[in-house]
Each structure stands twice: as structure tokens, then as C-alpha cells.
């Protein structure tokens, strides 16, 4: 099977969506499929990537480090058509997602969509929440999902939200698999980890809590920083290591300085995906106050690396973070000092929670993830084979390019023209938006039209 994964975010960006796409692609390739990843170009990429197709893009002014796709030309469409995709799997609702949907209509390819992001938690990025409301985000999400052949929800939390929004398409709950081999503690020697700690200014003997991911408002990293003074009362020399980057970093650094925590909070910046497994080993405990997660991949990765987790209570984490077995779930920041101290001040508890975390993560295999998605692809493709009623565009005679421009009042380009059919791509400033196809008999008037 030839599979196209369309995503607005991918490596070198480190986030849950990019990780999910990469994991799925690898799993599907092991099942014998050809997988192509379509994603925006990135100036940080200097080498060719196997089966990763970088589309023209520009920086997204509202989110630092994020890029959006630009106009996609008929030439790009023709190039992709030669890949003979059997299924299009969109992982975003914006530029690459819209492009994937357009390709689906143009080339008559079935689609599956994974809903990764709870947009009601992100409307503050657009005009500080004054332009797009949560209800508008819900309506947009519903509209996009209802146009797919089927929808994947990574967790029941996402499933329930989409159902509430009014999504009528079949929704399958398929958790993203974790390649636990990448994060195992045994991959790294103690000397290697101690050296990395010293490089970032961390004493190897200091107890350490860790956050890894985007530094964004919805991640609520400030909640953990504000709790640090109380945590230090219970745990001597405690350090908080923050791995990642994002728009909130300047504000978080100001907060650290205002609380006189410069010696206790360390920002490492973003790190390459190939080294992420090693950076998880900087911590004894993973901690997060985010409630915007749809699947909590960083929590799962941390646990695969043997780190207990303390997280704010969230439905998507209830099957991952098991209280008093793999960590704790808190409701208010006031609970944090006792929870952190219970794990870090007792070596036996830390060891037991660490072993439990590794055991729980072994159940989320990449193989099972790829198998379930593969089965969904097959069912969607089979459903698309059923006959559909279509309404043809009726044109009294073969139009010339000039006539089409006059009728449609926007630029139109003839892409293919043969003896029996002609196809017109209606263009707008955003790219190809619709396809018109007119079949005709080779008559005198038709031949004259061809000559024009």
C-alpha cells in the first residue's frame, strides 16, 4: 500500500504530533507499506530525508518555530499523483491537512484523519483569544472531521470531545504506540549521563525533576516553577530541568529570576530527536501541569525511560499514570510538595515506581498501533469502493481557457486535454480548490475548441 501522511509539524520540531507521525510511519513500513510524509520545509534541514517530502513554507507569525505551507502548484500535484497513493492520512486541520483533503478530492483517494489537538485550549494564540472563540474552534473541528472517511482519536478524551462537537463520522480510539527501545535507561551508561548533567550545570548527585516539551502557555510550566520554593523546603538541592523551547520561554525565565531560582531551574533549549532518550535520563521524576494533552506522549516516553510521573489530573492520562504505582495525579499545586517528596525522599519508592512505569509502557507497542491503523485504512478503502452518486458539471460544449476564465471569473488552468476529456483546475490565491472535468465526443466544434 502507498500511504501519504500529511502533517504541519515534524522533526526537527519536537512535539507529540511529530513523534506520533514518525512512530506510525516506521510501524507501517515494517508491515511492508510505502509511507511518504508530507510536511512544511524547514531551514534547519540540510540533508535529504528518505520518503519525507518537504513542501514550500513560511514561518507562522503567531507561534515561534512553527511553519505553515504555502501555495501548492499543479506541478506539485502532478508529482504527487505519480506516487499512486492508496490512502491519505491527515494529521492536521490546517495547511498540509487542507492540501491532503484537496488531493483526496482531486485524485479520488480515500482519507483518514487523526485529531491530535484540542483547539479550544489554543485559541489564545490568535489575537489573544479575541478573534476565534472556543465554539468556533469546535465548529471548525467538526467540519474537518466530518469530511474524512474515518477519524482516529488517540484517547477517549478526544473521542468524547469530538462526539460532543457533533462529529458523525466513525471515530476509532487508537492510542499512539511507543517505541520503548529508544528510551530505555540501559541505552546509556552512567558516565554518559553524568557527563551530560555536568555540561548543563547539573550536579549528578542532585535530586532532579524534569519537564520535556514545548514551552507554551497551555503547558502551565509556571505552575511547577511557582511551586519550587515549597518543594525546596522538603527536598534539599532540588533541581528542575526544562528541556525544550517555545513562545513562553522568556516569561518563564523572568519568573525564575523573580523567585531567585536561577540556581535551581535549568533551561536546556530544544534538542534533536535522536538525543531525546538521553535527555529523559537527566531527571529522577517527570512532572507536568498541562491539561491540554490529547494523548500525553511525553509522559509515556518518560515512563519508558524509567521515570515516575507527577501530572495534573487529566482523562487522557488515567490509564498511563497509575496513582501510587507509576506516580501521582494532582488537582491543585498545593499537593505537589508532598507528592514529590514521597517519591524522591524514599529510594525504595523511587525504584518501585520506576520499574512499574517501564512495565506499563511495554503494553503500548508500536506494532499494535500500526496494525490497528492499517486495519482502519483497509476498511476505509473498501468502503470507498462502494458506488457513489455524483453530480456531473454540465457544460453545453467544450469551453476554451478564455471562456472558462470569463465564466468562473478567476484564473483557471487546463491541466490535461485529450481526445475524450478535458480537466480544468479552478485556481485561487490559496491554490487548487476544485476540479472540473468535461467528457465530450470528438466533433467539429470540439476540434475547434482544441485548436483554441
UniProtKB/TrEMBL annotation:
Name assigned to this protein: Glycosyltransferase family 4 protein
Q: Name one Pfam family in it.
A: Glycos_transf_1
Q: Where does the Glycosyl transferase family domain start and stop, copy by copy? A: 193-359
Q: Which GO terms describe its molecular function?
A: hexosyltransferase activity
Q: Where is the Glycosyltransferase subfamily 4-like N-terminal domain?
A: 14-181
The organism encoding this protein is Candidatus Fimicola merdigallinarum
Query: CDD domains recorded for this chain?
Result: GT4_UGDG-like
Amino acid at each position: 500500500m502507498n500511504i501519504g501522511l500529511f502533517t504541519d509539524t515534524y522533526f526537527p520540531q519536537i512535539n507529540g504530533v511529530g513523534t506520533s507521525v514518525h512512530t506510525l510511519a516506521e510501524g507501517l513500513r515494517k508491515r511492508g507499506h510505502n509511507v511518504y510524509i508530507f510536511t512544511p520545509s524547514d531551514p534547519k534541514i540540510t540533508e535529504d530525508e528518505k520518503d519525507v517530502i518537504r513542501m514550500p513554507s513560511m514561518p507562522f507569525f503567531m507561534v515561534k518555530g512553527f511553519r505553515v505551507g504555502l501555495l501548492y502548484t499543479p506541478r506539485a500535484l502532478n508529482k504527487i499523483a505519480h506516487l499512486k497513493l492508496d490512502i491519505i492520512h491527515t494529521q492536521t486541520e490546517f495547511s498540509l491537512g487542507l492540501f491532503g483533503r484537496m488531493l483526496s478530492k482531486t485524485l479520488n483517494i480515500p482519507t483518514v484523519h487523526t485529531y491530535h489537538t484540542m483547539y479550544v485550549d489554543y485559541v489564545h494564540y490568535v489575537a489573544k483569544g479575541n478573534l476565534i472563540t472556543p465554539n468556533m474552534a469546535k465548529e471548525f473541528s467538526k467540519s474537518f472531521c466530518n469530511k474524512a472517511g474515518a477519524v482516529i482519536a488517540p484517547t477517549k478524551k478526544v473521542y468524547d470531545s469530538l462526539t460532543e462537537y457533533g462529529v458523525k463520522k466513525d471515530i476509532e480510539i487508537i492510542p499512539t504506540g511507543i517505541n520503548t527501545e529508544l528510551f530505555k535507561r540501559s541505552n546509556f551508561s552512567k558516565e554518559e549521563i553524568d557527563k551530560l548533567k555536568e555540561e548543563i550545570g547539573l550536579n549528578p548527585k542532585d535530586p532532579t525533576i524534569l519537564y520535556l516539551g514545548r514551552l507554551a502557555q497551555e503547558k502551565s510550566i509556571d505552575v511547577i516553577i511557582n511551586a519550587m520554593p515549597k518543594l525546596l523546603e522538603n527536598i534539599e538541592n532540588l533541581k528542575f530541568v526544562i528541556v525544550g523551547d517555545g513562545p513562553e520561554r522568556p516569561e518563564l525565565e523572568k519568573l525564575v529570576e523573580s523567585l531567585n531560582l536561577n540556581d535551581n531551574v535549568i533551561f536546556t533549549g530544544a534538542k534533536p530527536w535522536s538525543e531525546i532518550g538521553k535527555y529523559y535520563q537527566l531527571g529522577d521524576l517527570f512532572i507536568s501541569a498541562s491539561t491540554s494533552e490529547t494523548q500525553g506522549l511525553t509522559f509515556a516516553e518518560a515512563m519508558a525511560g524509567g521515570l515516575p510521573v507527577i501530572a495534573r489530573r487529566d482523562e487522557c492520562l488515567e490509564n498511563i499514570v497509575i496513582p501510587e504505582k507509576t506516580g501521582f495525579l494532582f488537582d491543585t499545586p498545593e499537593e505537589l510538595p508532598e507528592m514529590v517528596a514521597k517519591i524522591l525522599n524514599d529510594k525504595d519508592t523511587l525504584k518501585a515506581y520506576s520499574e512499574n512505569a517501564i512495565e506499563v509502557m511495554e503494553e503500548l507497542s508500536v506494532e499494535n498501533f500500526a496494525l490497528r491503523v492499517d486495519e482502519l485504512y483497509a476498511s476505509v478503502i473498501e468502503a470507498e469502493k462502494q458506488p457513489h452518486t455524483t453530480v456531473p458539471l454540465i457544460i453545453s460544449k467544450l469551453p476554451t481557457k478564455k471562456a472558462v476564465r470569463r465564466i468562473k471569473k478567476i484564473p483557471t488552468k487546463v491541466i490535461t486535454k485529450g481526445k475524450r476529456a478535458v480537466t480544468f483546475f479552478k485556481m485561487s490565491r490559496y491554490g487548487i480548490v476544485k476540479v472540473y472535468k468535461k467528457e465530450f465526443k470528438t466533433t467539429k466544434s470540439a476540434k475547434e475548441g482544441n485548436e483554441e
